[in-house]
């Protein structure tokens, strides 16, 4: 098991490059199952979740070749298996994203039923309803979702009862090879949905309306291979900008446009940061000032992303003033609070809200990561704490941040990885 050791107190200064988006790369990799031809993917981040998805694809018979870092060639021509096993699904819920593509291409899929996870119960009922509406028959047996569509899938007019990113992705991928037209209403509007739709269109699919709440897909009989570069990771970029704000520093992230960060940049401005942007870069400058605490309520895009909630909670613990951070997407996603308290943070949880009264400084302490974004928030807390913070269970952070200690080191942070 590895740990991160951080000695806090350094202002982050410098420039780094945004990695490819985890939340776009995973569905795009799953979508390669829709074709028997080769897809060449660029800007694929080197992350544990990505290697888990590649392992899953390989176990289905897909040929995966990575000749150089961040480039993956995926050939699903020889895919024969339709079973996503428990051992892989339990380590990554996004494995459920192979359900739609397998069903659409092979008329059959068996995917281990994803259970709850640390941040909440995270049901998949809407993924199932959308696929059933397209004509799939789905039952559970021995902990597996067994899906079949003997006569193929048919287009459908389907309305999601709740906005679901994964559900929209699964339905969109299945509809790409279904007979006729599909309309997905109350669809998720996240930029990663747009990236997946663009990838599908590059493969020859007919998807329109991505980025709005109504996505239209005209099914085609086959999709082909293509070359595609995954979008930059807005959550990773946002995490470094928040770390810069918390340490009163100045950081520029290259390779991403400010438009992708949207409301996150608005909140950073509200904190007192100066934000400068170019077509392909964003810079945050705190001019050495202490940030002001900001209230946040998470919501589906274009609202404030749940994946940035923990990082802003960490920022609020060292900012000036009191603030409320309310999590509306997942029922158990304020777990970072307990560990932050161990670092001296003044933080109280009331139902779905973290209430903070900012302190000028936290104290370093041994803490434990509980999920991906909670780990990022502990790193931010460690960067502003007096003395040494040791973060255990950092496999959570390796799921979603490429070379986080390397990137922070280039910004001047005192952080290192140790084998515990
Ligand atoms: C969610 C986030 C996404 C984030 C990802 C990883 C939203 C809307 N989605 O995507 O931004 O990147 O976590 O942290 O912010 N739900 C159901 N039934 C379903 C599917 C979902 O009730 O079949 C509910 C969930 O319990 C949750 C909400 O819908 O309350 C949104 O979930 P969903 O978008 O599907 O989760 P992810 O795809 O994991």
- Distance separating the two termini: 6 Å
In terms of quaternary structure, what is this? single chain
Q: Treating each run of at least 4 consecutive H or I residues as one helix, how many helices?
A: 15
Rg estimate, integer Å: 21 Å
Which secondary-structure class do the elements indicate?
alpha/beta
Helix amount: 25-40%
Average the pLDDT over all residues and give the rounded result: 96
Hetero ligands: uridine-diphosphate-N-acetylglucosamine
Unreliable spans are none
The fraction of residues in strands falls at 25-35%
**What is the 3D form?**
elongated
Structure description:
The protein is α/β, with parallel strands linked by helices and 420 residues long. The protein is 32% helix and 27% strand. The chain is built from 15 helices and 26 strands. The strands form 7 sheets. A 4-stranded mixed sheet has the order 23-25-1-26, with helices on one face. A 4-stranded mixed sheet has the order 2-15-17-16, with helices on one face. Helix 5 (125-133) packs parallel to helix 6 and helix 11 packs parallel to helix 13. The longest helix has 13 residues, at 234-246.
């Amino acid at each position: 098991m590895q740990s991160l050791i951080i000695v806090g107190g350094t202002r982050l200064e410098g420039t780094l490059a945004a990695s490819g988006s985890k939340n776009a790369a995973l569905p795009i990799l799953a979508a390669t199952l829709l074709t028997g031809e080769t897809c060449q993917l660029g800007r694929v981040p080197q992350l544990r979740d990505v290697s888990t998805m590649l392992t899953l694809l390989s176990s289905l018979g897909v040929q995966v070749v990575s000749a150089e870092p961040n480039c993956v060639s995926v050939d699903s021509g020889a895919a024969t298996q339709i079973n996503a096993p428990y051992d892989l699904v339990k380590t990554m819920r996004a494995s459920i994203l192979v359900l739609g593509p397998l069903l659409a291409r092979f008329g059959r899929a068996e995917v281990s039923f994803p259970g709850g996870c640390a941040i909440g119960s995270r049901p998949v009922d809407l993924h199932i309803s959308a696929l059933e509406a397209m004509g799939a028959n789905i039952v559970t047996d021995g902990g597996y979702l067994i899906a079949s569509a003997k006569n193929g899938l048919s287009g459908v007019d389907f309305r999601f009862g709740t906005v679901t990113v994964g559900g929209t992705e699964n339905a969109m991928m299945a509809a790409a090879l279904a007979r006729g037209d599909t309309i997905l209403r109350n669809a998720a509007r996240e930029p990663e949905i747009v990236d997946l739709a663009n990838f599908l269109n590059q493969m020859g699919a007919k998807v329109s309306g991505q980025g709005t709440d109504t996505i239209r897909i005209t099914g085609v009989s086959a999709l082909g291979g293509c070359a595609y570069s995954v979008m930059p990771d807005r959550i990773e970029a946002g995490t470094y900008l928040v770390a810069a704000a918390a340490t009163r520093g100045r950081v520029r992230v290259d390779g991403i446009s400010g438009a992708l960060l949207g409301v996150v940049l608005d909140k950073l401005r509200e904190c007192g940061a100066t934000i400068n942007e170019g077509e392909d870069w964003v810079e945050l400058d705190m001019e050495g000032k202490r940030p002001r605490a900001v209230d946040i309520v998470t919501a589906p895009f274009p609202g404030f992303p749940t994946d940035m909630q923990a990082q802003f909670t960490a920022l609020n613990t060292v900012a000036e003033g009191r603030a409320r951070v309310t999590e509306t997407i997942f029922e158990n996603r304020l777990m970072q609070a307990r560990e932050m308290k161990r670092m001296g943070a003044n933080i109280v949880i009331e139902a779905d809200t973290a209430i903070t009264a900012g302190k000028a400084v936290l104290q370093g302490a041994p803490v434990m990561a509980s999920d991906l974004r909670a780990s990022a928030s502990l790193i931010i807390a460690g960067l502003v704490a007096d003395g040494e913070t040791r973060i255990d269970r950092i496999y959570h952070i390796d799921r979603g941040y490429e070379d986080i200690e390397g990137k922070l080191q280039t910004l001047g942070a005192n952080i290192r990885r140790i084998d515990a």
